Amino acid sequence: MKKNLVVLVSSAVLVALSACSENLSTKTQETKSATQVKIQHQNPLLAEYAGPYGGVPAFDKMALTDLKAALEKGMALKLAEIDTIVDNPEPANFQNTIVALEKAGSDLSRVFSYWGIWGSNKNSPEFRDIQKEMVPKISAFNSTITGNEKLFAKVKAVYQSEELKALTSEEQRVTWLTYNSFARNGATLEGEAKARYAAINQEVAGLQTQFANNILADEEKYVLFLNTDQLSGLSESLVSAAANAAKGLGKEGQYAITNSRSSMDPFLTYSDERELREKVWKTYYSRANNGDEFDNNELIKKILTLRDERVALLGYDNYSQWRLEDRMAKNPENAMDLMKKVWPAAIARVDEEVADMQAIVDAQGAKFKIAPWDYRYYAEKVRKDKYSLDSDEVKQYLQLDKLREAMFYVAGRLFNFDFTPVPEGSVPVFHEDVKVWEVKDKTSGEHIGLWYLDPFGRKGKRSGAWATTYRSHTTFDGKKTVLSSNNSNFVKGSQGKPTLISWDDAETYFHEFGHALHFLSASVAYPTSHSGVRDYTEFQSQLLERWLTTDEVINNYLVHYKTGEPIPADLVAKIKKAATFNEGFKTTEYMASAIMDLLYHTTDPAKIEPQTFEKEQLTALGMPEEVVMRHRSTQFGHVFSSEGYSSGYYGYMWAEVLTSDAAEAFAEAPGGFYDKDVSKKLVDHLFSIRNAMDPAEAYRLFRGRDAKVEALMRDRGFPVTQ
């Protein structure tokens, strides 16, 4: 998920996407020799992974004082490897050019495994200082490689050679991806245009990093501390979690609602205190939009302007046109067309949901109209009224540990994987909350890889949930096994008590595990085959959410945290009956962000003032006033803190069309969601292949046809028009 199509600089680009050097010339004198070995011994961040399971990251030895030197040395070593490729007098071929590039940069890749931990799991002011200094240098390093004309000439020669026809299908695709990554990233430019392209990359990288850090600053700065008389409506588990959070912030005896989604969402759902709900809502949705040093409005304008200038150098009319060219959507018109097919039904459903909520308010004799900070609270009341479904009652059956066991069960049935905890202390971890499991094939006992889990929120950890790898499966240079990781921000239960989560959080838990299974099931040979197509890579994870509602999971793993009793059948029936409840809200808040992303990147940046643009465009769309974008502009990290999802946030819905269609394939199968034949096709064509095949072709092999949007409409309970 973190690999980028720019295969030559995948590790370095990962940094910019996650925001994610001395004189680095293409003729660096460093070589991989005894000097390098010495450097590796001196700097743990450069050293090859050692220990069991094919080697593991030395998380117990990582120190920020080593980071800058490791980055600089890693970049220098990779440039030396590039020089070796360029200086090879033999005619360019697949082995001495493409394979050599696949091997280049292994030292730097390891450094970025640690960089990712500091950036996402252990962020600090000290790290941000290093990040601010090094990101522009990393961008310059990237440009040095993509701007290397002799290297591009060799890649182009292989891509246009007769040899290409004799290569395997994966080798042909790796060659195309390599060539395309050069061509789409400035390699065809010359002179001043090439220099300007590199300068823009460097400036954008710094701005994106600052954007992400501003969000984190506001998330850490704003905390609402409550007293016991302000807890009305909150469940025992929520109160316990808030008390635990306050204790961690040095306010024992009080209750903390932090400025994160995992804390904000349940508070807005259950708190009876309307004024406090409004305060929490406004604080959360005003992140990086407070007119202070952490305000992101000007950064948005600068980032959009520079991105637009950069793609203009390549001959594109707008950034979206460039970004979507090699994705399933192909162009912004196709992406927007999908949005427009679903948007009218979504906002119409919001009107229905608001009417139901307003009826409750009116019946209570209250004299206010539903506001955004009321939506979750009154939606919960409608849920209870319409479906007799209490989300907090459901939560009592959603224990984090039991859900993890359920995920392992699903992985065993579909992928034939077995998860076993590694002995305590045998694998280094970067925080005491992190646990590790070994993954094996259940039949052969073959070692597949390791799975790291970092489930709880804490200071310095970025919000949300994500998956990544510290090493991917490859075989081209000796077999490498997988080191995969899932990361969440659940609010930890009090000492001795289980962590209980919401149904939405349980779906997210399964979702991110889907990414891990995508990593673990890989059967490809080359690193570049792991590069993601953004409107496809969310499909596998979205699909895995469907197994949460299978009978096998519900009946065996959803048990009450106090009594151990399985979740009652009537409560399960209510959950399934309410499956499309509040779908208007969920679809509209997501789609508003996805549409705005496309609009930001297809509009002349000179005409954009972010707050005005956001308001005007949403008004033109008919955005319900009771709902806001899931990610408002100044906190839209997917789009402005990296280029991972920039002009590509629509991809979640594109992938959901695939998800809904694939789920119907399982539903129609004799064995249902555990059907062996459909499961095998799923693994063979949609999980193990990664990006070694065009995703559209891979999906046709699985389904026998293209996916249909009607499946998505049925899933969400929206009208299906013929």
Overall pLDDT: 92
Distance N to C terminus = 36 Å
- The portion of residues forming beta strands comes to 5-15%
What is the CATH architecture annotation of the largest domain? Answer: Orthogonal Bundle
Provide the domain count: 4
Give me the side-by-side strand order of the main sheet: 3-4-5-7-6
Number of strands: 7
Question: Can you tell me the residue ranges where pLDDT is under 50 for at least 5 consecutive residues?
Answer: 1-40
Number of helices in the DSSP assignment: 29
CATH T-level fold name of the largest domain: Neurolysin, domain 3
Which outline best applies? globular
Largest sheet: 5 strands, mixed
Structural class by secondary-structure content: alpha+beta
Instruction: Please report the first level of CATH classification, the CATH class of the largest domain.
Output: Mainly Alpha
User: Helicity, in percent?
Assistant: 40-55%
C-alpha-based Rg, rounded: 25 Å
Signal peptide: 1-21
Family: Belongs to the peptidase M3 family.
Domain Oligopeptidase A N-terminal: 79-194
Cofactor: Zn(2+)
Characteristic key phrases:
carboxypeptidase; 7 strands; Neurolysin, domain 3; 29 helices; 5-stranded mixed sheet; alpha+beta; metalloprotease; 4 domains; 722 residues; globular
What do you see in this structure?
This protein has about 725 residues and is of the alpha+beta class. The chain has 4 domains: about 5-185, Orthogonal Bundle (Neurolysin, domain 3), CATH 1.10.1370.40; about 220-285, no CATH class; about 295-390 and about 580-640, Neurolysin, domain 3 (Orthogonal Bundle); about 400-565, Neurolysin, domain 3, CATH 1.10.1370.40. About 55% of the residues lie in helices and about 5% in strands. The strands form 2 sheets. It has a 5-stranded mixed beta sheet. A two-stranded antiparallel sheet has the order 1-2. Strand 4 and strand 5 (about 445-455) form a beta hairpin. It starts with 9 loop residues before the first helix and ends in a 7-residue tail after the last helix. Residues about 1-40 have low confidence and may be disordered. InterPro entries: M3A_DCP, MetalloPept_cat_dom_sf, Neurolysin/TOP_dom2, Neurolysin/TOP_N, OpdA_N, Pept_M3A_M3B, Pept_M3A_M3B_dom. Its EC number is 3.4.24.70. Pfam families: Peptidase_M3, TOP_N.
